[in-house]
Amino acid sequence: MAKLTKKQKLALEKIEVGKAYTLAEASAKVKEVNYANFDASVDIDVRLGVDPRKANQMVRGVVTLPHGTGKQVRVLVLCSPDAEEAAKAAGADYVGLDEYIEKIKGGWTDVDVIITQPAIMGKIGALGRILGPRGLMPNPKSGTVTMDVAKAVEEVKKGKIDFKVDKNGIVHTSIGKISFTPEMVKENAREFVNTLIKLKPATAKGTYLKSIYLSSTMSPGIKVDSKTIDD
Prior knowledge:
Blueprint: H1 6-13, H2 23-32, E1 41-48, E2 60-64, E3 75-78, H3 84-89, E4 94-96, H4 98-105, E5 113-116, H5 121-124, H6 128-131, H7 149-158, E6 160-164, E7 170-177, H8 182-198, E8 209-216, E9 222-224
Parallel strand pairs: 3-4, 3-5
Antiparallel strand pairs: 1-7, 1-8, 2-6, 8-9
Helix pairs in contact: 2-8
């Protein structure tokens, strides 16, 4: 096991072993224990009482965080010429079609989100092996395949994220930056967890929210009491 650094030890000392903090406490504590010298991401990990191997227990969705993610999201819109101006006006970083499809075939994936139209999906299907592993493949369920590409760009820029439970039953995502106030972190976390609750599969039995942890990019995890989400 790797030896803990002095900063890591100091961070751990600030977290009470075995304690489940209220969401408000954890949102403040995550800033207190952060020791990175950059504006680290604030992450949330939620273990769900589901079996992702069963199709009827897959949890996947989208949420618009009240305060955004704090990240500069690079958006590529692959669309027909008549939609290009609207996409650019909405804030898309890259807009086009064939030239970007060729760039992607050549290995270019320097974007965070790709938005397209239903009629264009036939052209993009061949890019699945490149985009799929990077989580960039447009999908109607995440709102990235739509007739209204301008609206989709605006939503992504405002803080809309998509998420999916992994094979271990855990949903992990970033919900802000360490420069956010504790209140901003709390409100983003609350919105995210409440969205997960709304997506609870009818077939899920027992405890649904098994554990919730907040952390920053380089900090230890802080356990959150799920009963305090709406406090």
